[in-house]
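Instructor's aside before we start: the two examples that follow are unrelated to each other. I chose them only because their records fit on one page, so don't look for a connection. First example below.
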Amino acid sequence: MPQQGELTIKTEFGILEVKPGEICVIQRGIKFQVNVSNTELHRGYVAEIFDGHFELPERGPIGANGLANSRDFLTPVAAYEDIDYPNNDFTLFHKYQGGLFTVQLDHSPFDVVGWFGNYAPYKYDLANFCTMNSVSFDHPVCVKNS
């Protein structure tokens, strides 16, 4: 979640441009690369889930019009990168059971032509989140007139 500066996140599924005020979720096992521009300062937050997967909660009694609508979660448009590294110049880092491992590649790992399914990275603009009472500004105060 960038707080300052924009991120360009390249994945096997395509590219996501993530701006301050948006969050990006990349599920386990997806290859990605985060790029920042050299012209601006960048600051933000990274969170990692160690057990299970990140899932949106059910909306319950709020119904279909509350909190976050599924149409506001944006997945990347498929992008293809055809780059060869003849001297195995591309280093891919893997995290597995708390350890970091590397492998040298002779091609880009982002050379996927397309994808199908719902296991994909996505971004969400937090301005689209619909709070359902006054907790977004202040808690209501009960004043008793006497």
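Example two begins here.
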Amino acid sequence: MKRILVVDDDPHIRQVISFALEKSGKKPYEAKDGNEAVELFSRVKPDLIVLDVNMPEMDGFEVCKEIRKNSDVPILFLSSRDEEIDRIIGLEIGGDDYVTKPFSPRELTARVNAILKRLNNNNIEKDTVTKNELSQGNLLMEIDSHICKWSGKVVNLSATEFSILLGLLNYPNKVFSRDEIMNNSYDININISDRTIDSHIRRIRRKFQDCNCHTIIETVRGVGYRLGSF
């Protein structure tokens, strides 16, 4: 049973989310603020966090930054604001998805399931997976263990980032449009903007730049992205 940490300062929203998660076979744990979330995270070790952005004292972005110091657990942000800048910030600091209030509990549960599915690598087309490892040059991706390495050094990718890069590695010569990347990485019918995909790509590039790799993903102007030449 997957453990889900639900963080929101509104007890009614926590209750609605927890009920929906329980119905889908998950085990929810609730935190009413950021400080409690950080404490509960270290104790429970959840498989995913549903995290409200707009909380007093320690907001969701601060909680995410704190957790990202030691963990790449998937994070789904909740926010009452539908401003694109908030969405982009959430993804840039390590979020996997972003849902705006008011939301449908069914959609939220579907997004949680989609993230967990990506984490387990079950969304990869079965005819492209012939072995546990895929590699090209200095890039190695271990599918079952969800480990990515560059020149032997581990690159910590979120579930969505791992899925995006693995899709490119499966077809290293193919140029993927943003729509194709979205369809490969989000296996439910939801609205994802081009800027969301661009944010994930930027974050992947930034992580590889820290390993002295500056060509992990190439931009093909007017078309999309492909795996870089290295």
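The first strand starts at residue 3 and ends at 7.
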